[in-house]
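I hope you will forgive my troubling you with a question about protein structure. I set the record out below, with my sincere thanks for your time.
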Amino acid sequence: MARKSAHSSFTMKKVAAAQPSLAMNLVVLLALASGAAAADSPGGLVIVAPERFHQALAPYLVHKAKQMPADLLALEDILKRSTGADDPERLKHGLYDDWKRRRTRYVLLVGDADALPVRYMVLDRVTAHAKDYAFYPSDLYYADLAKPDGSFEDWNGEKDGFHAGYFGEVRGEKNKDGPINFDRIDYLPDIAVGRWPVSTTAEVEVVAAKTIRYEEGVLRAGKTGERRAAFVNVGGWVDCRPFFDGLSRICLRAGAPRKLYYSGRRAGPATPPPSVEEVLRALNGGLGLLVHAGHGADSRWEGSLGLKNLPQIQNQDFLPVVISAGCSTARFATLPPYEPYVDVAGASTRERTTARSSTSRLRRPRRTNRVGSTPPAWARASSAGAPAARWRTSAATPAVSPAACRWSKGSWAAWMAWPSRASATCGPGQSSTTSRRSGWRS
């Protein structure tokens, strides 16, 4: 059984140490995009879906079985036979057992937040009305199956008091003492996990058909720019330009990569700006891989591409695998407590007020929480004096637009109705825990 590196606090040092692995993953993704996937991948693919989706997934299962061993498992069966604190943990136990037994390499979760369990990790925030905590969905939970010794990784290293109900705790904004990585997780994936955010059988059929068509085209190796990569980095965020320079050198073997970087003090030759026009030019010229880093929102990469630009893309038949590192660019579920949600006890927060005891904590979200459209009452009250269309709960938390949440949902409906779109695996780009809600997420 493969072993992983020893636990350590989640620091920039660890992020830097993980970058070579990220570089290798990008090379692998580029190879997959160019049709170089091996047909005899050990362990193969496991597809997990509610039983009601299985008939619609049958053609896709046949298609994938031509490339690697592929199995379709019922979510209901996994939850019934597995143990755990809740549905996400039971599902993870099922994936862990399967990984140990047959060395599964890839897992596809078929189901939106209302159809398939979501694990919410916990961050401490300076948000008094929410007892200084917030929850964020993360499918990395399903990819990081094992601890360094090979035992099950429950993402819950700290179980004292209310912490027993909080998974994947990260601290440092409100709580300055102790480790940032409060639950002592290594965050290193053992398998590659993707999710199709579908809610109905009709949506499954559309995404499956588009994915088959896309992959068959890639395997025929007849797509323009299928071995070409582009890297986008917008200013005002983490400066990834040196890292992207290194990845670009790796990708040179597959063709000259495009580097769309912001200007400023930087050694080396000038590159085009990461503007909408430059990104569209790269996409329309054909790409196999597009990597983005920068500020993000539900409907756009800040200072660059947005959902409104989708009609300007004229290369719908071959869009790249897209990886985006930026806030909200992978959004597919509610963000508690900044939006209404239902907790594990079945209580709704839509009209919850601040009338709580001083020792109470927000309970973690229920397994299914879809993207909301209006803030809870306490959040609206906390934004007195702000425009009605926008609200915030603390100076450290960016304002969230309820309209953006509806736009996010609407964009998925528009994507589903776009007949020329090639594949569900394109953008926000199936990263190791990948494709999400709208046309451009990661």
Notes: Confidence is low (pLDDT under 50) at residues 1-41, 351-359, 372-442. The CA atoms of residues 318 and 372 lie 32 Å apart.
